[in-house]
């Protein structure tokens, strides 16, 4: 016998859904587990290979503030995939909304579970090149969504040093920086 979800009890429905799942294990034991569900997301590390910089965002995030008093995080461009649009389309849309970049090509770098012990969230990871000419808007996020995004163009060498020092605390960004280091070590 395989694992089986026997019951789902909704707890909350808003930006995310929270449910409690009752699960029968292969040996017949019954478990109850909380699950957070808000959809599939993208994260993209946009980098300029000529100037050897990446365009990142700084923004307030309530969970790190609640858990550690951290007022802002340094992150890769990210966002929720809307209405089943292709992940690549979301990556391009979020880059334009958040940092004002029009990205032509996005290169897949993985599809990962973000927090598999709690959340259904899966993240499509992308790398994308840009030049100063690709800056077509101010960025900063969509008006009315309360994102309060600050652009943070950062040297790739600084990102590598921070990765090595263990001070990149956004897992998406850390994963994308390390992937870029493996694929394009000449940039670092």
TrEMBL record:
Cofactor: Mg(2+)
InterPro entries: NDP_pyrophosphatase, NUDIX_hydrolase-like_dom_sf, NUDIX_hydrolase_CS, NUDIX_hydrolase_dom
Binding, Mg(2+): 78, 94, 98, 147
Keywords linked to the UniProt accession: Hydrolase, Magnesium, Metal-binding
Gene3D superfamilies the UniProt entry points to: Nucleoside Triphosphate Pyrophosphohydrolase (3.90.79.10)
Domain Nudix hydrolase, first and last residues per copy: 37-176
Annotated GO MF terms: hydrolase activity, acting on acid anhydrides, in phosphorus-containing anhydrides; metal ion binding
Motif, Nudix box: chain positions: 79-101
PROSITE patterns attached to this UniProt entry: NUDIX, NUDIX_BOX
GO cellular component: cytosol
Catalyzed reaction equations: GDP-alpha-D-mannose + H2O = alpha-D-mannose 1-phosphate + GMP + 2 H(+)
A GO biological process held by the record: nucleoside phosphate metabolic process
UniProt keyword Lyase, yes or no: no
Subunit structure: Homodimer.
Family as reported in the entry's similarity comment: Belongs to the Nudix hydrolase family. NudK subfamily.
The protein, known as: GDP-mannose pyrophosphatase
């Amino acid at each position: 016998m395989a694992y089986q979800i026997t019951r789902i009890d909704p707890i909350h429905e808003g930006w995310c859904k929270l449910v409690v799942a009752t699960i029968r294990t292969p040996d017949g034991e019954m478990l109850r587990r909380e699950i957070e569900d808000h959809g599939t997301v993208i994260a993209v590390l946009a980098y300029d290979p000529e100037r050897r910089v990446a365009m990142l965002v700084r923004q307030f995030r309530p969970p790190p503030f609640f858990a550690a008093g951290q007022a802002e995080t340094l992150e890769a461009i990210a966002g929720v995939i809307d209405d089943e649009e292709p992940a690549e389309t979301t990556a391009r849309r979020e880059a334009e909304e958040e940092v004002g970049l029009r990205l032509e090509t996005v290169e897949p770098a993985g599809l990962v579970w973000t927090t598999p012990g709690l959340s259904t969230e899966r993240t499509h990871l992308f790398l994308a090149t840009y030049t100063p000419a690709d800056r077509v808007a101010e960025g900063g996020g969509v008006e009315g969504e309360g994102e309060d995004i600050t652009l943070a163009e950062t040297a790739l060498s600084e990102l590598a040093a921070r990765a090595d020092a263990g001070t990149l605390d956004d897992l998406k960004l850390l994963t994308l920086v390390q992937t870029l280091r493996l694929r394009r070590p000449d940039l670092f």
